[in-house]
Amino acid sequence: MKLSVNGIPIEAEDTGGPGEPILLIMGLGGQLIHWPAEFMQALIDAGYRVLRFDNRDAGLSKHFPGKSPPNLPWIATQAWLGLRPRLPYSLSDMAADALGVLDALEIERAHVIGLSMGAMIAQRVALAAPKRVQSLTCIMGSSGARGLMKPTSAVMRAGAGKPRGQADAETLARYYVRFLQAISSPTLPPSQEAFMEVFERTAARHSPDTDATARQLAAILTDGKRAKQLASISTPTLVIHGKQDPLVPPVCGEDTARRIPGARLQMIPDMAHDLAPAVHPEILRRVLAVLLPFLAEHPLGSETQSSTLRAEP
């Protein structure tokens, strides 16, 4: 369904029902269909009402073409110097979209789960509207602190030669699968068939747009002030990170959990940057074994003050 959010169309899906709402926020360049079906079903079976949406500049939501793709090295340099480069939008704008989805569906309060860039947006949601967030789960995310997000050389090589704009399907498929393989678990990888199935579904719904992804990445690169602000979050928080993440290194998860008072850190063995769009069943099982009990510990109507939770190795 199409929602009018902050003056732009945002595509969303709502499983409905009387259960406590969970708002899922997808990562860089991702679409709402990239939440694995098995992940969705596990939340539904646990009794939750699950909401998911396409971020701006992704999937069937509003895109922002018409300008040259952002010069990411120059934007990163400006951000490092404390300058404010002109961008189409910020992570705070994307957080406002997430809150706008709740508004449009008349939901006052929800559990918020973000993945990768979505985890960073989820942090912004908790900072902007703490009374709207029952619990916060950051999966494979980062605080935005300087010097943490250093992908491995293998991931950098896989990302090189990214096609620009609306490339042909064969070129996009080769790049898409190569990159997903580079960020997936070396010990519990999804199958080649799973990667191709995801790409085909993605292309049929809305072909990947690398210029749009660059605009989202520019919003990430310029959100460095968020790190110091995380200390003000009092929402119960779970940080899930893969021990083998080559794109957003494990230190990013450790840093996020350290900055949010009382946050619980769970490092998942064998997990890389691969809960979505394709995931090995064992990785999914390990994530759900941590996530579902955490959600159950913080039902709607319970105390919102963050409890003191010891970080787990």
TrEMBL record:
This is Pimeloyl-ACP methyl ester carboxylesterase. Residues 21-274 form the AB hydrolase-1 domain. It comes from Ottowia thiooxydans. It holds the Pfam family Abhydrolase_1. It comes from the Bacteria. Signal peptide: none annotated. InterPro entries: AB_hydrolase, AB_hydrolase_1, AB_hydrolase_fold.
